[in-house]
Design a protein that fits this description.
Layout lengths: L19 H44 L5 H5 L7 H19 L10 E8 L6 E2 L6 E2 L2 E12 L4 H4 L1 E11 L5
Antiparallel strand pairs: 1-4, 2-3, 4-5
Helix pairs in contact: 1-3
């Protein structure tokens, strides 16, 4: 029924909107749940990457401590390659296993350790970062796969690559 202003009136002055809230809920609830799942999965990805970076940093620092003491006595800084590679992988892997057991696929994780015994007159370049190395340096690269928990059907696994290095500087 129309009133004198031409506005449709129904009993009690309300229009017939029964069920409109449930329709909106059915439409927007899946979208809201998808957004929440995306936020959680991206947060877990960022956490996994940060923890991998910390593991690589710690492994590089541990590996850089393997100095040739005989060379150090005569004033030359040389990192023992075999020991540095072993310690770098050990410390990095142990740190990953303790901090990331559920965030990455450990069986698909690759830890690469490279030792550069460069000097000011015999500099080298890091093959991963391209940085010029004028001091003995240990570089660690971790390649890991992170699986999404909620949206794995859409994105599958995400590859994470982190790089860390530690140099031994000569004291003046």
């Amino acid at each position: 029924m129309l009133n004198e202003r031409g506005v449709d009136q129904v009993k009690g002055g309300l229009s017939n909107d029964k069920g409109s809230i449930s329709t909106l809920l059915v439409i927007f609830l899946p979208v809201l749940l998808l957004i929440m799942a995306l936020v959680i999965d991206v947060g877990l990805l960022a956490t996994a990457r940060n923890n991998l970076q910390a593991a690589a940093d710690m492994g590089a620092l541990a590996a850089a401590q393997n100095l040739d003491l005989k060379e150090l006595q005569v004033g030359e800084i040389v990192i023992l390659e075999k020991e540095a590679v072993k310690d770098g992988k050990l410390w990095t892997t142990e740190n990953m296993l303790r901090n990331l057991p559920h965030l990455i696929e450990c069986d698909e994780t690759i830890v690469k350790v490279k030792v550069y015994n460069g000097s000011a007159d015999r500099f080298m370049y890091d093959q991963y970062s391209g940085r010029r190395l004028e001091d003995p340096t240990v570089c660690i690269v971790i390649e890991a796969s992170h699986k999404f928990y909620f949206i794995h059907g859409v994105f599958g696994k995400q590859k994470i690559i982190v790089h860390a290095d530690a140099s031994v500087l000569k004291r003046d």
